[in-house]
Amino acid sequence: MSFITYIFSTILLSWVGCVVYLGFRWTRPTSTARRGMLWMVILLSLTIPLTPAFFQQATGAVGQVQGVTTVPTVTVFSPVPVGTDNINEFCHCASPHAGDVIMYQASRVYDGILTHRGWILIALVLATFLVSLRLALRLTALVRVTRRCRNERIEVMGKKVWLVRGVPRLTAGSLRLGGKYIFWHPSLDVLPEAEQQAILLHEYAHICQCNTYEKLFFGFLQSIWILNPIYYFFAQELELLSEYMADEYAASRFGNRKNYAQLLFVVKSSKKFAAVNFFRGSKLKARVAQVLKQPETPKVHLFPAFVLGLILLFPGEFFAENLIREKVKDIRLYELLSKENHQTGKQEFCKKCAYEAVESACN
Q: Is the overall model pTM greater than 0.85, yes or no?
């Protein structure tokens, strides 16, 4: 159950982190700050379940479990369920009390999890393998084609990069893996020199952001978060923030923001650039607005906003951690009672003894 538990733990933590991120975004931080906070949420969601303390069983009072209900006390003097003649047959507590009695009731949800957990694990491992294999094959093919088609060495912002022409199904883009590459479509050669330079600056900004490694990471992350809607929100948000930062990098050096925004529309609308993917997509309007908008005054200054995000993030993550830990304990308790019920037909159990058995099995 550990791998399955880890996946669902990270998913729940990502939901909590998403709420905190949306609150942080409300403070109007810069794109760089938003990207940093988003990565912090993702990394905490993935690493907190790996900490040694995550699955330590909580001490003290425990709550009710689905499929396990507390038996009402018949009388304050009744230490064990009605029909039990020998206290030692019921439990080994020094002073058993009727308030500690729980009753087993079947749960289809927990029975389904326990019955099919092997298949669930196989499906998750297979999905992870297939997604990883697909990513590795595509990456290998891209690297081979890139090295075969690279044409010339150019200089952008004082750094040497390879300008790659004629790669099938690739237009303007960038790659940073075993080298720095910028893909170039022949139709872009008709643009004025300044506009060509703006496109090169935009793609060079993606290289500086290490977006290739980011996409690789998210490709592997999809194998375990494929059913997590927050994954797709995070991926779209990071892609948009990356474009914002690249646009800002290029526009600030292009010299005129309005001309840069016009370049976006030209490449998007002109028929002679129909094959060019650069600047295309449903986020074009948002990117143009981001380039042209006047700098806004943050509702909260960056440092207080970042501290506020951390204050909200860590308690939220640990709240989710405790919730997951208790749910795991509930499933293990149900498994113990279900096994005992099928073997002996017994329905009433001592809560203290049952939890002691679960904790000893976990330790």
A: no
- What percent of the chain has pLDDT above 90? 7
CB contact burial 84-121 (16+ within 10 A = b; e otherwise): beeeeebbebeebbbebbbbbeebeebeebbeeeeebe
| Residue type for position 95 | S
Which helix H or strand E contains 174, and what residues bound it?
strand 173-176
Spatial CB neighbours of 341, under 8 Å, sequence gap ≥ 6: 104, 347
214, 238 in Cβ contact below 8 A? yes
- DSSP symbol at 94: S
Q: How far apart are CA 106 and CA 116, in angstroms?
A: 16
Sequence-distant (≥ 6) Cβ neighbours of residue 240 within 8 angstroms = 283, 286, 287
- Measured from the Cβ of residue 149, the count of other Cβ atoms closer than 10 Å reads 16
Alpha carbon distances (Å) from 138 to 58, 173, 216, 236, 239:
45, 16, 11, 21, 20
Question: What pLDDT does residue 282 have?
Answer: 46
Sign of CA dihedral 166, 170, 171, 175: negative
**Which amino acid belongs to residue 230?**
I
Residues 6+ apart with CB under 8 A from 140: none
Give residue 360's pLDDT.
67
Q: Write the single-letter amino acid at 250.
A: A
For the chain, what is the mean pLDDT? 74
- Look up residue 187 and give its two tokens: 């139709």
Closest to 334 (Cα-Cα) out of 116, 59, 111 = 111
pLDDT at 73 over 80: no
| CA trace torsion 238, 241, 247, 253 (10° rounding) | -110
pLDDT of residue 238: 93
**What is the rounded CA–CA span in Å between residue 34 and residue 200?**
25
The pLDDT tens digits of the residues spanning 207-216 come to 999 888 898 8
